[in-house]
Design a protein that fits this description.
The chain is an alpha/beta fold and about 350 residues long. It has helices at about 15-30, 40-50, 95-105, 115-125, 150-175, 190-195, 210-225, 240-245, 260-275, 295-315, 350-355, and strands at about 5-10, 35-40, 50-55, 80-85, 90, 110-115, 130-135, 175-180, 200-205, 230-235, 280-285, 320-325, 325-330.
Length: about 350
């Protein structure tokens, strides 16, 4: 049984991370008498041995708080760690320093909370000899091997609220509203929020869309007496025309912050040209990453954290906590590395949208 565990959070910001930290800390310390060490700023803190010895007061009163009390580094990969030497940046393998921090604290295991990239690095640390348990969080719900990631439900809830507001504005002004949400590689946020919010068109990275077909959907609604339309699209949605010109969600020129808003603006330009209808673009961006987690995310995060400690007690290392079929289970970390969790036309939520007459522009 593990007696001393490490905890770190990394990847993008996400509601519910503090709820995970709370669940891990309280379960480990109160139920099992373990000691817990929190590494600050993810893998960066592990390499630099920047840590805090967690106590009950650290994990109390944080259930409803957004962000992470331990901080993030954006996945500063220990195997390719960015270093500043005499004002010039370069990369070097600092995984030995990460392993040294692990052993210095006499940890039985490290619980790594993060997105798909965080889990990829965790798997490499496991191969290096560190005992690792991974826990998936992502507002995009794009981690394979699990049905639901921490943070996703809160993001959908926020997006639905935005759609509700855009509905009243669009209906009164007779405009075409485009709501761009997070989703560089998968469209779960767009589709789940669009279904719950009553959108008319849903555009995601999984399905290349035809701007002409989107325009026809908008004009059809006009002919049916509907003077407005709501389009919800992922930041990574790409049109057939974009594909021909080499534009994609992973294009270097549209990476990171520069990508936010680009998809919506491209679509609005095309639709105004084809329909003559004024389009307005709203980009939620990182608003979906912040704020208080909704109740479901708090309970989901708590269940994830408790299961992670249970796995530590059992010595189930090299595994990821997964929410599958309504239960928390242990799966190999490799299950999370087999590709991003993406929508298909057979996905239940996609079929529901199609049955309701929503268009995917395909």
């Amino acid at each position: 049984m593990a007696r001393r565990i490490g905890i770190m959070t990394d990847g993008g910001d996400c509601p519910g991370m503090n709820a995970v930290i709370r669940a891990i800390g309280k379960t480990a310390m109160s139920k099992h008498g373990m000691e817990a060490v929190g590494f600050r700023d993810g893998y960066k803190g592990l390499v630099a041995n920047n840590f805090i010895k967690l106590r009950q007061e650290h994990v109390s009163g944080i259930l409803d708080k957004g962000g992470s009390i331990l901080g993030l580094s954006g996945n500063r990969d220990p195997f390719r760690f960015k270093m500043d030497k005499d004002g010039e940046y370069g990369y070097s393998d600092q995984s030995d320093r990460a392993a040294e921090s692990f052993r210095m604290h006499r940890l039985d295991c490290l619980i790594a909370v993060g997105n798909a990239e965080t889990l990829r690095i965790a798997a490499r640390l496991q191969e290096k000899g560190l005992n690792v348990i991974a826990l998936p969080k992502s507002v995009e719900n794009d981690v394979s091997g699990t049905d639901m990631t921490v943070g996703f439900t809160t993001a959908v809830d926020f997006a639905v609220g935005a759609i509700d507001k855009l509905h009243s504005s669009a209906e009164s002004s007779h405009k075409l509203m485009i709501l761009e949400v997070l989703g560089s590689r998968s469209g779960w946020v767009a589709v789940e929020s669009g279904l719950a919010g009553g959108a008319d068109v849903l555009l995601t990275p999984e399905f290349t869309y035809d701007v002409g077909k989107v325009a026809r959907k908008v004009l059809q609604r006009r002919n049916d007496g509907k003077s407005f339309s709501i389009i919800v699209m992922s930041e990574g949605a790409v049109s057939a025309e974009d594909g021909l010109t080499g534009v994609s969600a992973d294009t270097e020129g549209l990476g990171g912050r520069d990508r936010l808003g680009a998809a919506g603006i491209r679509l609005a330009t095309g639709l105004e040209r084809l329909t003559g209808i004024e389009c307005q673009v709203t980009v939620l961006g990182n608003l979906l990453r912040g704020g208080r987690p909704v109740p479901y995310d708090r309970t989901l995060a708590t269940a994830y954290g408790m299961k992670a400690v249970e796995m530590a007690c059992e010595g189930t290392y090299g595994s990821m906590v997964a929410f599958v079929g309504g239960s928390m289970v242990a799966v190999p970390i490799s299950d999370a590395l087999r590709g991003f969790r993406r929508l298909t036309m057979e996905s239940e939520v996609v079929r529901s949208c199609l049955n309701l007459g929503m268009s995917f522009g395909a």
